[in-house]
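#struct-pred
JK: can someone run the complex with carboxymethyldethia coenzyme *A? inputs below
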Amino acid sequence: MPKKISHVGIAVNSIEESTPFYRDVLGMDFEGTEVVAEQKVKVAFFVIGESRIELLEPTGPDSPVAKFLEKNGPGIHHIAYEVDDLPKRLDSLKEQGVRLVDEVPRTGAHQTRIAFLHPKASGGVLTELCQAASSH
Ligand code: CMX
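RT: done, structure tokens with the ligand placed:
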């Protein structure tokens, strides 16, 4: 079973312009920004209990988030679940015939290991599984 919702990813055109709503209006703790080169995004995290809101800004026109923004505009992009057995879980999903974007884990923000399930596998919600750096 996944341990918790790690984060909810929200696609934005500009982290700088979107930050005041989460930090000042909602009053969440701003944890900082990071460029995830492999995913072609800049991300910003805001802490909410054991979870986070992750703002995603594309770093180039070929970023999956740029494509998403072009098609849908800003809004909820994905939900990420924390697991502690990512490679095993991916094997099990493959056995079940679940459509995956990533068949093997790759590197996400904070050196986590991450993998995406295709939105077509889950009724239109892009789903991410992630494993904290300390538990792999
Ligand atoms: N949520 C729901 N549906 C989505 C989606 C999303 N975030 N992104 C794309 N889709 C849908 C599209 O609407 C489209 O649906 P239709 O066929 O019904 O029109 C379908 O998926 C295919 O989308 P596309 O625009 O043609 O884009 P691609 O197939 O090239 O890519 C996807 C889609 C999901 C495989 C790609 O975006 C991907 O690999 N995503 C995972 C990586 C990622 O998003 N990284 C950024 C975040 C990184 C982080 O959090 O660190």
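RT: quick notes.
The longest strand covers residues 4-11.
Residues 4-135 form a domain with the 2,3-Dihydroxybiphenyl 1,2-Dioxygenase; domain 1 fold (CATH 3.10.180.10).
JK: thanks, will look after standup
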